[in-house]
Amino acid sequence: EAQVTQNPRYLITVTGKKLTVTCSQNMNHEYMSWYRQDPGLGLRQIYYSMNVEVTDKGDVPEGYKVSRKEKRNFPLILESPSPNQTSLYFCASSILSSGLAGTDTQYFGPGTRLTVL
Amino acid sequence: GIQVEQSPPDLILQEGANSTLRCNFSDSVNNLQWFHQNPWGQLINLFYIPSGTKQNGRLSATTVATERYSLLYISSSQTTDSGVYFCAVRDDKIIFGKGTRLHILP
Description:
heterodimer; A: 117 residues; mainly beta; 7-stranded mixed beta sheet; 4-stranded antiparallel beta sheet; 11 strands; 49% strand; globular; B: 106 residues; 6-stranded mixed beta sheet; 5-stranded antiparallel beta sheet
């Protein structure tokens, strides 16, 4: 079954304790990205990657790191989490086509609800 | 960067009613998607529609790229249509609108 998986689904942690949220897709997609969703602000892109070893900042990258060492995995790292990073996080993947000619539909993982105390 | 605006922000309808949701974007794009986020938080693809019209059951979408807007039509609404509807465009980065929250009353 084609899917994007994220782990953990729920996490409560304390300020400053490093954490990693994993994301994996089995569709051989080139494009992967992370979003955070906050009330009233919608979904905002944190980082994205167009292929292995290629990552770029989205709109809200501060306080986050990512890596793309394999095509299927795109972990999100919070080196020193703070309470303002409490949010719902989504990972997504898609093929990378030339827009009109392609069907680069994004597929989302189930979300990770993070609380930083 | 590209701005994406959705309207209306909130919509309350009786079951069986029809609705039109709008997505305006500030620059030309060649990638536009509509999503539904159900009450459990799951994001579900509805349409990938950079231009033209597509239909899937009671839902259809039209994008007029030259005029920089897209419309999502929901006919004969059901309570399971409740949730938030997002449009998103891609220009390397992906930009989401803030969504339309739809509540269908039984």
